[in-house]
Amino acid sequence: MDNVNSTFKVDKRGYYGEFGGAYIPEILHGCIQTLQDNYLKVINDPQFKASFDQLLRDYVGRPSPLYLAKRLSAQYGCKIYLKREDLNHTGAHKINNTIGQILIAQHLGKKRIIAETGAGQHGVATATVCALMGMECIVYMGKTDMERQHANVQKMQMLGATVRPAISGNMTLKDATNEAIRDWCCNPSDTYYIIGSTVGPHPYPDMVARLQSIISEEIKKQLLEKEGCTSPDYLIACVGGGSNAAGTIYHFLDDAAVKIILAEAGGMGVETGLSAATIQLGTTGIIHGSRTLVMQSEDGQIEEPYSISAGLDYPGIGPIHAHLAQVGRAEVIAINDDEAMAAAFELTRLEGIIPAIESAHALGILAKHTFKPSDIVVLTVSGRGDKDMETYIEHMNKDAKQAAQ
Ligand SMILES: *Cc1c(COP(=O)(O)O)cnc(C)c1O
Fold first, then answer.
1. Mutate to test the pocket of ligand 1, among 149, 243, 324 (most ligand atoms within 8 A of CB)
2. What pLDDT digit, counting tens, does each position of 198-209 carry?
3. Range of the domain at 235
4. What pLDDT digit, counting tens, does each position of 182-191 carry?
5. What's the structural domain count of the chain?
6. What CATH number is associated with residue 125?
7. Ligand 1 atom at minimum distance from 198 CA
8. Of 193, 208, 223, which closes a domain?
9. Is residue 14 part of a domain?
10. Is 382 among the residues known to form the active site?
C-alpha cells in the first residue's frame, strides 16, 4: 500500500495538489491529529490486517467476482469485465470502508460511533458493523431524507442504531453532516466519526481510499488469472464522494497506460440547474472539512444538488477526484438521469443484473465512448438495485404509457 513516489496520492500535509487539507473547528484538532498520526500505523499493523482480511472474506464475501459480461461486451465491441461490488453483504462497496473504520476505532480505544447519512446507505453500513462489534451507534440523517428513505431508517433501527433527525437547512445530507460534526465536538474523547466516502478532513480521504483499495488489488489478481495481464485499458466507475472510484483506481493510478473514466450525476442536464455534476459545475471551496470543488452560489452558499440517484447527489466531491480531473489523469463525464436509466435496463436485459442507479451512471459511459475490439474495460458495479426498484418500476410504467399513446 505504499506510495512514496506517486504524484496522485496524498502529500504529507494532506493535500492532492491544491485540494484536501483539514479545515476543522479548534476543538477537533486533537482528534484529527491523533487520527493523522495513527491511521497508517493501524492500517499496516499485522493484527489489523488479519482482522480486516478475515472479515472481508467471511463476513462481506470477498473477493467479489470479476465477471466477463459477454452480451454487454458484444453490444459495445470490446471486452467488458464487471467488478461485482453489488454482491457484497449489504449490497454495495460501502461495507469495505465501515469494517475498516470500526476496526480503527477499536484500535484507538473509542467506545461510541457516529455517522451521517444522506440516502441511508452509509447509515445502514455503519449500523451493520456496530451491531457486529456490539458498539453504540448514532446516525444523523436529514429529516427530509428520513421521510424519503424510510426503509433504510427502519433497517438502521432494527440493527440497533439511534437515528437522529437533522432539522436545519433543507434537512438533507449537509445538515446531517453539520450535526455529526457538532456531536463530535461535544464528545471528542470517546467518539469515533465514521465518514462514508473519500471526503472530509485529512486523513479521511486517504484512509477511505486505502480501505476501498481492496477493489483494485483484487482486479489486478483477477485480470492476471483471466487475461494474463495485470492492467486493463480502461477503468470506469461512478463518483458521488468518490470511494468506489478511488478503490477501483487506487493501484493503477501510476500506470499511465490505464485510462480512467469517471461518471458524475448530470441529473436533468448540466445546464438545467437540476444537476449534481460537481466537477463541471463546482468551484473551489470548503465543504465537510476539506478544500475541494463545491457546488455553491457566488457568495459561497452550498447549492442543493439534484440527481435521480440518492447516492450521487452530493454537492462536493472528494479532493482526490478534483485533483485527478484538474491534472487530466481522469476523464469525468456527466451522465444524466435518463441515460443512467437506459443503461440500468440494458444491463438488466443483457446480463440479468439489476444495478444500483448510482452504478448505472458508470454503465452510461459505455454509450458515450468508442472502444477498440482489443480493449479490456473494467467497470465497477458499486451496488445492487434492490433499493431502487420503486424508481425503476415508475420508469417502466412511464415508458409503457408513452408507448400506448
Ligand atoms: C453511496 C454509493 C455510491 C456513491 O458513493 P462513492 O463514495 O462515490 O462510491 C455509489 N454507488 C452505490 C451503490 C452507493 O451506495
1. 243
2. 999 999 999 999
3. 61-91+213-404
4. 999 999 999 9
5. 2
6. 3.40.50.1100
7. 7
8. 208
9. no
10. yes
